[in-house]
């Protein structure tokens, strides 16, 4: 059985863990700027930013798994 829904999280290498934190920090910085503009288009942009960070995190986790 696979852990499709990630009931347990993986322990990442310190390097990849730091990278994820850096990416999320940059995303938060961008989000603060984007929140100043209230529009449907900006709401869509924020949703896509969230999705991009999710996929980025997943890619880093999977890459980390392949290295170990």
Q: Would you kindly provide a written description of the structure presented here, covering whatever features stand out?
A:
With 68 residues, the chain is mostly helical. The chain has one domain. It is 72% helix and 0% strand. It has 2 helices and no strands. It has helices at residues 14-34, 40-67. Helix 1 (14-34) runs antiparallel to helix 2 (40-67). The longest helix has 28 residues, at 40-67. The protein is elongated. The chain starts with 13 loop residues before the first helix and ends with a helix.
How is the secondary structure organized here?
Elements: H1 14-34, H2 40-67
Beginning-to-end CA distance, first to last residue: 21 Å
What is the string of helix and strand elements? HH
Overall mean pLDDT stands at 87
Question: pLDDT below 50 for ≥5 consecutive residues: which ranges?
Answer: none
Helix vs. strand class: mainly alpha
Number of strands: 0
Portion in strands = under 5%
Number of domains: 1
Can you tell me the overall shape?
A: elongated
Question: What would a concise description of this structure say?
Answer:
The protein has 68 residues and is an all-alpha fold.
Q: What features would you highlight for this structure?
A:
about 70 residues, mainly alpha
């Amino acid at each position: 059985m696979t852990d499709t829904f990630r009931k347990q999280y993986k322990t990442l290498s310190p390097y990849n863990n730091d990278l994820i934190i850096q990416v999320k920090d940059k995303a938060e910085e961008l989000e603060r700027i984007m929140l100043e503009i209230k529009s449907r288009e900006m709401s869509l942009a924020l949703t896509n930013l969230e999705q991009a960070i999710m996929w980025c995190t997943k890619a880093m986790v999977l890459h980390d798994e392949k290295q170990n």
